[in-house]
């Protein structure tokens, strides 16, 4: 495998995963050619631009916690990394995840594990929740877990603009084009093929096409169970000041957090409506009146009087095997590297994923955080790494 200065990398997809991989390749000392192929330079429909852009350390899988901790550190130091004018609007107001009485024991064990891995998470009793967040009803609640530091939200578009601009400054080439196929020679991707007939020879190919990664990997004759699933975001005003309002994950399944002068929130559709949503960006309007609003008003009474301002839908890139990202080398195609399938937690994990991809290509192995548990081997063998805390 060519790891020399002359090696060339073609990255498929130029949003948050592709751009962080490109930028970190330069940071890791890779001096070869890097080309990022992006079909839509406006990024209108990419998951990154449509994301809720929040970061949590409350996960059930240690590797996800460590990826988040790296993301938190990265966001806190964004000005040192990208310059004093860099601003992604990062705030740390915590995730408050509510559970019923039947969840208390498992949730406390999860908090113990998260703390042991370095996360600053506390378990709150219903009384403690009511004292800290008096606008939340706790009658049916047994526990709330809260990220006291190291959890919050930011502006994903600003982050993408920063890392993409910085990658370009370091000589990364972004081209507009739709990848439609690949040339494979001797179990390696020898070239990436574009719809307009162009052929991009490569020593390494990085799959960072988000929700389209599963379909594109099929074009390589390989399996990757990543499917686009629609998630609707409702943006609304309510007669309640944001104050210390956290990213709230309710036991009903809804989530809500402050955004600007108002709030955003959502809920995943019922399983029988949660199909492959390729090319479908029509919001699930029914969910607002029938599910989201009633549940929200029950939990936060002031939300009874919310005023919907707009809705949009984006695609989660759901890894159907276990709802975790797929990072690292394919087991047969020796120069194909994945950075995809994050199933709704990709923006927060993009810095750690990009660094991992860059380490693999530039050094031949992970040199900081070991991302092996998220490798392709589990797709091949059907061995899930289950993530218990998913939304
Ligand atoms: C409603 C919603 C809320 C979310 N909330 C959060 C959150 O709070 N926190 C969090 O961390 N994550 C969240 N996510 C998930 C997060 O947005 C994604 O995990 C992340 O953006 C994935 O980044 P990506 O670069 O892999 O994919 P994308 O951003 O989709 O980028 C893939 C790129 O590949 C390009 N592409 C696709 N096919 C081709 C092709 N054939 N040729 C060339 N280019 C191609 C696309 O145009 C696109 O720009 C949310 C997602 C949604 C939809």
Could you give the topology of this structure?
Blueprint: E1 8-12, H1 16-27, E2 33-38, H2 47-50, E3 54-55, H3 62-76, H4 78-82, E4 95-99, H5 104-116, E5 121-124, H6 126-132, E6 143-147, E7 152-153, H7 156-169, E8 173-176, E9 179-185, E10 188-194, E11 199-201, E12 204-207, H8 213-218, E13 226-237, E14 247-249, E15 255-259, E16 262-266, H9 286-299, E17 307-319, E18 326-329, E19 336-340, H10 346-363, H11 377-381
Parallel strand pairs: 1-2, 1-12, 2-8, 4-14, 12-19
Antiparallel strand pairs: 3-7, 4-6, 5-6, 9-10, 10-11, 13-16, 13-17, 14-15, 15-16, 18-19
Describe, in plain words, how this protein is organized in 3D.
With 391 residues, the protein is an alpha/beta fold. It folds into two domains: 8-52 and 156-225 and 321-381, FAD/NAD(P)-binding domain (3-Layer(bba) Sandwich); 91-150 and 230-314, D-Amino Acid Oxidase, subunit A, domain 2 (D-Amino Acid Oxidase, Chain A, domain 2), CATH 3.30.9. It has helices at residues 16-27, 47-50, 62-76, 78-82, 104-116, 126-132, 156-169, 213-218, 286-299, 346-363, 377-381; strands spanning 8-12, 33-38, 54-55, 95-99, 121-124, 143-147, 152-153, 173-176, 179-185, 188-194, 199-201, 204-207, 226-237, 247-249, 255-259, 262-266, 307-319, 326-329, 336-340. It has an eight-stranded mixed β-sheet with strand order 5-6-4-14-15-16-13-17, with helices on both faces. The protein has a six-stranded mixed β-sheet with strand order 8-2-1-12-19-18. It has a three-stranded antiparallel β-sheet with strand order 9-10-11, with no helix packed on it. Helix 1 (16-27) packs parallel to helix 7 (156-169). The longest helix has 18 residues, at 346-363. The model has no long low-confidence stretch (mean pLDDT 96). Flavin-adenine dinucleotide (FAD) binds next to helix 1, strand 2, helix 2, strand 13 and strand 17. Flavin-adenine dinucleotide binds next to helix 1, strand 2, helix 2, strand 13 and strand 17.
């Amino acid at each position: 495998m060519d790891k020399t200065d002359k090696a060339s990398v073609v990255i498929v997809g130029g949003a948050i995963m592709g751009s962080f991989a490109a930028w970190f390749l330069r940071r890791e000392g890779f001096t070869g050619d890097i080309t990022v192929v992006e079909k839509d330079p406006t990024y209108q429909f990419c998951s990154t631009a449509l994301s809720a852009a929040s970061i949590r350390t409350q996960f059930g899988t240690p590797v996800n916690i460590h990826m988040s901790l790296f993301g938190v550190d990265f966001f806190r130091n964004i000005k040192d990394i990208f310059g004093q004018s860099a601003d992604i609007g990062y705030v740390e107001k915590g995730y408050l995840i509510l559970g019923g009485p039947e969840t208390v024991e498992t949730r406390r064990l999860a908090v113990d594990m998260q703390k042991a891995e370095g996360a600053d998470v506390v378990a709150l009793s219903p009384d403690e929740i009511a004292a800290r967040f008096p606008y939340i009803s706790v009658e049916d609640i047994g526990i709330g877990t809260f990220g006291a530091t190291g959890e919050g939200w930011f502006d994903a578009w600003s982050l993408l603009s920063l890392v993409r601009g910085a990658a370009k400054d370091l000589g990364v080439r972004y081209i507009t084009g739709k990848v439609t196929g690949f040339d494979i020679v001797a179990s390696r991707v020898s070239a990436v093929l574009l719809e307009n007939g162009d052929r991009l020879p490569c020593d390494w190919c990085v799959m960072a096409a988000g929700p389209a990664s599963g379909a594109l990997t099929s074009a390589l004759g390989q399996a990757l169970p990543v499917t686009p699933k629609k998630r609707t975001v409702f943006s609304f005003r309510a007669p309640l000041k944001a104050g210390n309002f956290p990213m709230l994950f309710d036991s009903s399944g809804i989530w809500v957090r402050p955004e600007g002068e108002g709030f955003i929130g959502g809920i995943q559709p019922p399983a029988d409506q949660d199909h492959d949503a390729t090319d479908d960006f029509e919001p699930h309007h029914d969910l607002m009146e029938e599910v989201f609003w009633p549940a929200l008003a029950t939990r936060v009474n002031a939300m009874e009087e919310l005023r919907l301002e707009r809705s949009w839908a984006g695609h989660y890139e759901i890894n159907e095997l276990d709802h975790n990202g797929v990072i690292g080398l394919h087991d047969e195609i020796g120069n194909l590297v994945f950075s995809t399938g994050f199933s709704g937690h990709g923006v927060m994990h993009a810095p750690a994923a990009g660094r991992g991809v860059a380490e693999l290509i530039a050094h031949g192995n992970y040199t900081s955080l070991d991302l092996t548990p998220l490798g392709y081997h589990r797709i091949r063998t059907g061995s899930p790494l289950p993530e218990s805390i998913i939304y």
